[in-house]
Amino acid sequence: MKQSNKTERRLQIISGALKLFAQRGFYSTTIPDIAGSIGMSAGNIYNYFPSKEILAQEILKTISAHLGQQIRRINDQDISSREKIKQIVKIYFDTAEKEPEMIDFFLRVYLSNREVFGQGCEGMICVNDFVTEIMIFFDDGVARGELKNQDFFSAFGLFMGYLGGMVFLAGEKILPQSLDAYTDDIATNIYNALKAQ
Amino acid sequence: MRLLWLSALSCNGNVHSLLNYPQYEQWQKGFEWLYHPLLPSLHTFEEVEDGVKGCDVLIVDGTLEQNLLKHRRPFSELLERYATEAKHILTVGTCATFGGIFAKGEAGRTGVHFCGEARRGEYEWFWQKSISLPGCPVQPEALAGTLSLLAAGEPIPLDELRRPKYYYAYTVHDGCTRNEYFEYKIDEHRFGTLEGCMFYEHGCQGTYTHGSCNKILWNGLNSKTRNGQPCMGCTEPDFPKEGLWSTPKHMGIPVRMPLGVPRRAYLTLAGIAKAFRIERFYKPLMEEE
Ligand code: SF4
Ligand code: SF4
Fold it and tell me: Residue B103, Cβ neighbours under 10 Å: how many?
């Protein structure tokens, strides 16, 4: 099979599995379910991913790389930390609206089934692309005197926890408005919490 | 080969350093001191002030200061007279090279060719025959070795600060016994113990300091970092920094990266390396500690 076909197949499996995992959770989704949803045989999926755990890990890496790439584009621009925060919030919410299963996977599979990611995704290895860009964003902000020099996890937890919480509320249909309506306010809140005094 | 040693503002650390060169006895046979502040010399300092002939290598240590008087004559006058005659000029120690500790004390103090990182113009005319041997103090092997190479007429490749690459192309991090801890980002260090890298918390500058301290051990025995004390970057133009025993960080990320390592790549690798908890590295190497 040609390399490009192989890559495409791989992506097809990842996106099919992503949807099911995000909807039904990791344990209630089987490889035959995934195979059925994308019109492939279960045996063929095993040719690409030797186990359901590894498939879940690959999905995580793919999402992390996808988000990481977009934040990198923001980091590479010569704009203020405040403006960057706004753009990161926007990207996160856009992704949650256009590809909700990506963020759902993060919240419902990765964060709730840590045992699945124990071996092979120790620490933050599988979300490294994403975390690295957030680190670069923080580092630049402090270096420019725009952000407060504080503990990394306090800042990271504040940033991601807030975004995750909003997406979760939106997913549960609790928010009165659509996510993007909150972008400005949330970016301002995050900026106020992170800015240098 | 005839050597002449002139000290400007100095603590005599470099003068003593040469006395600690383990092969001094053997080494000195090829050299003759026109003047050295401690070693038997052909001339007294007063004679040097009046002018003596035959200087092949002028060795300068200590920080320069405007109008510095050395006994009876301005230091600059002595420096210029002997620099004109000498075939080579060595700025020995960080003070003579970049300004060093004494330059922090008052404005207007500098090294011979540098004021920190900035090139000075004043002695441009002997830049081409100058060699920088920074260090606080200079490593004795770097001084004795450079002089031996000059005596042998060997070419000495220099970096852009005129430091001999044989001694300064490495970083202090090269050969440090804590490299494994560096790789796995473990800084569980207590001063004087054998475990832990000092890059993350304790201000070690070994990864971006040019020097042979861990390749040519001091007194053939040890180095700061092997012994559990962070490298203070004493061979670099910005020595001494403030806050030496802590690592400046932005939200937990070291402000200064190891030499030549791009920040993004470093952070990616660090994130991965940190994920491994290798038990061996968290146990004392020696129970006695
Ligand atoms: S202690 Fe310093 S020199 Fe040694 S490995 Fe760590 S950073 Fe490098
Ligand atoms: S370890 Fe660092 S501070 Fe110590 S002598 Fe070597 S270069 Fe200087």
Answer: 24
d(CA A166, CA A58): 25
ipTM reported for the complex, 2 dp: 0.82
How far is it, in rounded angstroms, from Cα A161 to Cα A182? Answer: 15
CA distances from residue A31 to A38, A108, B149 in whole angstroms, order as listed: 11, 18, 71
Asked if residues B3 and B59 have their Cβ atoms less than 8 Å apart, the reply is yes
Chain B's closest residue to A72, CA to CA, is B264
Contact B247, B203 (CB under 8 A): yes
Name the residue of B171, B178, B214, B223 whose CB sits within 8 Å of the most ligand 1 atoms, as the mutation to test its pocket.
B178
pTM: 0.88
- B4 CA to middle of ligand 2, Å? 26
Decide whether any atom of ligand 1 lies within 6 Å of the B202 Cβ. no
Out of A132, A149, A152, the one facing B264 most closely (by C-beta) is: A132
Rg of chain A, C-alpha, whole Å: 18
Q: Which sign does the torsion angle of CA B181, B182, B186, B189 carry? A: positive
Q: Which two tokens stand for residue A92?
A: 């996160």
Query: Could you read off the pLDDT tens digit of each residue along chain B, which spans 289 residues?
Result: 999 999 999 999 999 999 999 999 999 999 999 999 999 999 999 999 999 999 999 999 999 999 999 899 999 999 999 999 999 999 999 999 999 999 999 999 999 999 999 999 999 999 999 999 999 999 999 999 999 999 999 999 999 999 999 999 999 999 999 999 999 999 878 888 889 999 999 999 999 999 999 999 998 899 999 999 999 999 999 999 999 999 999 999 999 999 999 999 999 998 888 888 888 888 888 876 5
CB-CB under 8 Å, A150 with B267: no
Bridge partner list, B60: B6, B91
Residues 6+ apart with CB under 8 A from A6: none
Taking CB atoms and an 8 Å cutoff, what residues of chain A touch B264? 132, 136
Here the tokens at position A36 are 């059925």
Report the gap between the CA of B253 and the closest CA in chain A (Å): 7
Q: Which bound ligand lies closest to the C-alpha atom of B215? A: 2
Strand partners, B91: B60, B132
Instruction: Tell me the residue type at A93.
Output: F
Place of tokens 């052909």: B42
Angstrom distances, CA of residue A133 to CA of B28, B56, B106, B270, B285: 57, 56, 43, 13, 36
Residue entry with tokens 């830049």? B127
